[in-house]
Write a structure and sequence with these properties.
elongated, mainly alpha, 55% helix
């Protein structure tokens, strides 16, 4: 039996790390300084969401090891040093193009991508009570208003996610808990989220709001959102149908009124119904194409 590696296998072709698509040192020909650009750029308060987006993008490129320390700087004599420099520089450019100019001016002369990453983390990732206070205050002021249900929910969810990043739910570290108290805490938090979502809805949703509140058990936040969204879509469908129905009803009413009004008219010249004296053909003359009917 042949033990040769299949054609196309990197091992069979003895590819270098910079040529192997599975290697973190590999750079595709399309990878440039603008390949990874996170928007909105890092401005400070948005560090948590920004860093999450950046690490996701970097993991897709198989370059996360350059930031988490699992890939260290090779010796200058190593064959990996050249590929490392290229990858390091491309990641640096991605970071610089994904942060504000003010922040970039403070890190643009640092030549190690990991050092830049760590500096940004030390500067912006620390717990910020002022930011948490700001988010909690913002949460209390969010109402649906003129927004759609989806826009309103998205705004709420963005604040909840950021608060959760600053204050993640506690986890059992001893491994001995059997009462599932933390699970109950999580359920209560979800219920609070549902209440907040329902409270901010416009008064026109009082019906569906009341139905959700009396449900037992209380639905999850996503389920409550889905129910309200269905209500909104049903209303939009009714609004789309209503104008056509009203137009038909108006036309029918107009025709009925016209027929009724005409049947109530009597000509005092000829004594016939359906017209008045000022429109009587016997006085104003018959039209050229008028067809005379002989009386029996």
């Amino acid at each position: 039996m042949s033990t040769d590696a299949p054609i196309g296998d990197p091992l069979a072709r003895n590819l270098s790390p910079s040529e192997d698509p599975n290697s973190p040192y590999f750079l595709h020909h399309s990878d440039g300084i603008n390949t990874v650009v996170i928007t909105p750029p890092l401005s400070g308060p948005n560090y948590l969401s920004w860093s999450r987006s950046f690490t996701l993008a970097l993991s897709v490129k198989n370059k996360l090891g350059f930031l988490d320390g699992s890939i260290t700087t090779p010796a200058g004599t190593s064959t990996l040093y050249g590929p490392w420099v290229r990858c390091n520089n491309i990641i640096l450019s991605w970071i610089i193009h994904s942060i504000s100019q003010e922040i970039a001016s403070n890190v643009c002369f640092i030549g190690d991508a990991k050092k830049v990453w760590d500096k940004l983390k030390d500067r912006f990732a620390q717990p910020d009570n002022a930011r948490i206070y700001q988010l909690q205050h913002q949460l209390g002021t969010i109402m649906q208003g003129t927004q759609s249900v989806n826009e309103y929910f998205t705004q709420l969810n963005a604040v909840w996610e950021e608060i959760h990043n600053y204050r993640p739910s506690p986890n059992c570290s001893c491994g001995l808990c059997t009462c599932d108290a933390l699970g109950s805490v999580g359920e209560r938090q979800q219920t609070d989220y549902v209440f907040k979502f329902l409270m901010g809805l416009n008064e026109t949703y009082d019906g569906i709001r009341g139905q959700i509140i009396i449900m037992s058990p209380m639905p999850s936040l996503d389920k409550a959102f889905s129910l309200v969204l269905q209500e909104e879509r049903q209303r939009q469908a009714r609004v789309a149908i209503l104008p056509a129905a009203e137009s038909c009803a108006l036309a029918a009413s107009h025709n009925q009124t016209k027929k009724k009004d005409k049947s109530d008219l009597t000509c005092y010249n000829c004594g016939k119904a359906g017209h008045t004296k000022d429109k009587c053909y016997r006085l104003i003359g018959f039209l050229p194409d008028f067809k005379h009917h002989s009386s029996a």
